[in-house]
Amino acid sequence: MILAGFAPVSAALKTVDYLIAFGGALVLTLVLTPIVREMNRAMGMVDKPDPRRINKVPIPRGGGLALFIGFGVSYTLFLILSGRPPIASAKSLASGVSRWNLHLKLFAIASGVVALGYADDKFGLPPKIKLLGQLLAAFLVWSWTDLGFSRLWPAIPGWLDCPLTMFWIAGAINAFNLIDGLDGLASGIAFIATLGMAGTLLIIDSPQTTLAYFAFAGGLLGFLRYNYNPASVFLGDSGSMFIGFMLSVLPLVSQVPNSVLVSVGVPLLAMGVPIFDTSLAIVRRSIRHMIRKRDASATENGEVMTADADHLHHRILRAVGLSQRKAAWTLYLVTAAAVACGLFAAASKSRTAGLWLLAVAGASVVIFKNMARIEFYDAGRLLNAVARNHTVAARRLRARLRVPIMLAADIALMIFIYLLLCWAWRVDAPGNAVRLGMLIRVSVLFAFLVLFRAYRTVWSRAVLSNYMRIAGACFLGSLVGGAIAFAASATGPYASVRFSATFGIASLLAIAGVRLFRPLVRDVFYALDCSRLKGRKDVSRVLVYGAGLRYRTFRRELVRTTSANTRIIVGLLDDDILMRGEYIGGIRIEGTLAEAPEIINRLNADAVVVACEVKPEWLKIVRKTLEPTGVKVTLFTFGETEVTAKEESWPTEKTK
Predict the structure, then answer these.
(1) Which of 24, 321, 451, 643 is most buried by a 10 A CB count?
(2) Does some domain include residue 465?
(3) In this structure, what are the phi and psi dihedrals at residue 57, rounded to the nearest 5 degrees?
(4) Under a CB-based contact definition with an 8 Å cutoff, are residues 137 and 248 in contact?
């Protein structure tokens, strides 16, 4: 009973310690930041406005030096005056090394990281030099302080632990370096992330590292006072790199054995926004670098490490009307939601997959929507450029590989479907019998595909009859294969009629799906292109008159020229009133030609493309109907011209 009575007192003392550590760093950083700001201004360390930067007036950078000193000095003084032990890893405690050993070593490495960032703020170091310095700091953390993932996974070998630790630290440093593009964004996200990680340690009762987190949170809040919009000082590379260093190293110190959630999961969730932004930047810049190598006329920057204006904060800033506060708060809320999810899981120790599946599903929707207009579009451009490489050697290579690749893909799909059905039907038979049934069914179905000329068809030009041939081959092949399997005494479920029918239908869906993949990708690419064009002001909004074959051809031509396309189809016109409100290729049929003036006004269209067969008399009616609207009207046609004996009468292609 006496011991139980001391529990509230102990908790209260810990709370007081946390508040003192937090308040000390807060006050010292509040005092130091204006001093460092004016010192940096006098040294010429000022971010001047330019097309890529968001600030409209010159603002001093390198303010992270105040955060480093405010946190480091206040936290160290608190430990000395209070007698509290500093942070220590399990390895250092087991080896009997002084707790101050780890504290001083980490402080020395952090000083090097801040010095590297401050030098970049002053002189503008090359990206490769910064990356080399970051990797050196990460290596020192692993080798000198003996921190890594070995406590979480004791069986991990050193040759794997070292690069994994270096990747973790350097990745976090670069993540916060790249996300630091709005007033108060990096420092605000770091503040939320730090409190989230501290909350996790409070749940598992790890007071010493929790103390360091609260002190760091105090420093971040003190700096945020001057960094929040409108900012009077920027973190600079010195501050953003220091934040990334601290938020990656502290979880290594506080690792809990056999708890991936606490040791890695919550830190990943807390740093999710900058990590996701960095991953997108690497993908985006790599794709653009490859586009640049293939096309020297491309306007994208040509180096992977070159800055751009497509980070998360840039996109959100454009979406919210160039309001830095709204953009920052949007990402604050995303970070807070991720941290809350991690804290809930850590507190409840829930092992159910439902919460995580829901979180992954929600994140996937956000990620896809975020990537659609830029990363997916750029990837499509790259694939389109590769596919349209019309050099003789490339065409010959594709021609030679087309059939073998299709053959291999079909056989692999049929084998996979057969084995999947055997697993789903819980087939209990000797391995030889299963293999015999697979050999018979796959061979017979493949023979029917060859017989029905499935590999002599140009599937990019396929029509319905070609797919009907595939259906016939799968239907007959599955029946004949099932009959042969039954005659070969391959008894069991895999020799039944139901199995044969299921195998045939599944094979048809898979084989036809592979052949439909190309037009599907084309449609997706067109949808991404439309999504990209919606945000531009120089785009022509086109209303298409006619929803038949010519419309589909016109749309295909837009897809083929997406890199230079500046037109977007906003709706369709068709004189068949029964089709009103229907969708063709994702575009809605708005009404008839008679309703065109009202539809043009409602959709804010500035051009009409006539993509149907019209006689000259009806074309006059079209022109008369649309003339009052003032929109541009063009006629999209395709046809044939007789090649006569007179060469001068042949149609000629205009050359540029």
Answers:
(1) 24
(2) yes
(3) -130, 155
(4) no
